[in-house]
Amino acid sequence: MDIPTITDSQLVRLMVWLSPSFPTGAFAYSHGLEWAVEKGLVHDRASLIDWMTTVITNGSGWTDCVLLRLAWRCDDDAALQDVADLAAALAPSRERHEEMTAQGNAFARAIGTWGVVPGIIVSDDRALWPLPVVMGATFRIAGIGEDHAALLALHGFVANLISAAVRLVPLGQTDGLRALAALEDQIISTSAASACAGAGDLGGFSLNADLAALHHETQQTRLFRT
């Protein structure tokens, strides 16, 4: 993957926008991990790495990377709206749809401080803008290269889910960091592969993760929203 030069100003902005403390509410979502932990599918560092590898390469990690790139490449509002509608339609469950649109709406509100949100998103009262679409569109306006945007957004997604697993399993902080380190190659290779992808390449096969999202809707004891 050819990574263009990034300026100090752009780097500082990315550090803020993709920080765990950025107010998107990401800490409240487990992406189905809460159910997977309850059922024993994720119970230690090794099983977490296996679970996340599938999510990254064949699940929403891949899909979100492609959607972010498609949004980044949009030249007009109509094209961006089409990508947003496609992203929302691809959500395999109610909670997954809520997760991507609630965070997308929150990200758009927060990043509006920098004045880099497309007008169509700012003026849309429906608040159904999926997070990867908002990220792709705003990063383009901010001058963030497509490759940097995809790679760092995917890394942020993975880091957030590992943080959830640290609390849920529970894992120690060291095991959480070891899991994140072990997933670096998958993050980089998936982001790189998405550079050549288009709408026809959307989709994957992460059945357990999708089922976990569906089962979480009726889980009796829940700490996370998804």
Written account of the structure:
- By secondary structure, the chain is mainly α.
- 63% of the residues lie in helices and 0% in strands.
- The chain has twelve helices and no strands.
- The chain has helices at residues 8-17, 33-38, 45-58, 60-72, 77-89, 94-111, 119-122, 131-141, 146-168, 173-182, 184-194, 207-216.
- α4 runs parallel beside α8 (131-141), α6 runs parallel beside α8 and α9 (146-168) packs antiparallel against α11 (184-194).
Helices and strands, with pairings:
Layout lengths: L7 H10 L15 H6 L6 H14 L1 H13 L4 H13 L4 H18 L7 H4 L8 H11 L4 H23 L4 H10 L1 H11 L12 H10 L10
Helix pairs in contact: 3-4, 3-10, 4-5, 4-8, 4-9, 5-8, 6-8, 8-9, 9-10, 9-11
- Low-confidence parts, pLDDT < 50 over ≥5 residues? none
| Total strands | 0
- The helix/strand class is mainly alpha
Distance between the termini: 33 Å
What descriptive keywords fit this protein?
226 residues; mainly alpha; globular
Summarize the structure.
The chain is mainly alpha-helical. The protein is built from twelve helices and no strands.
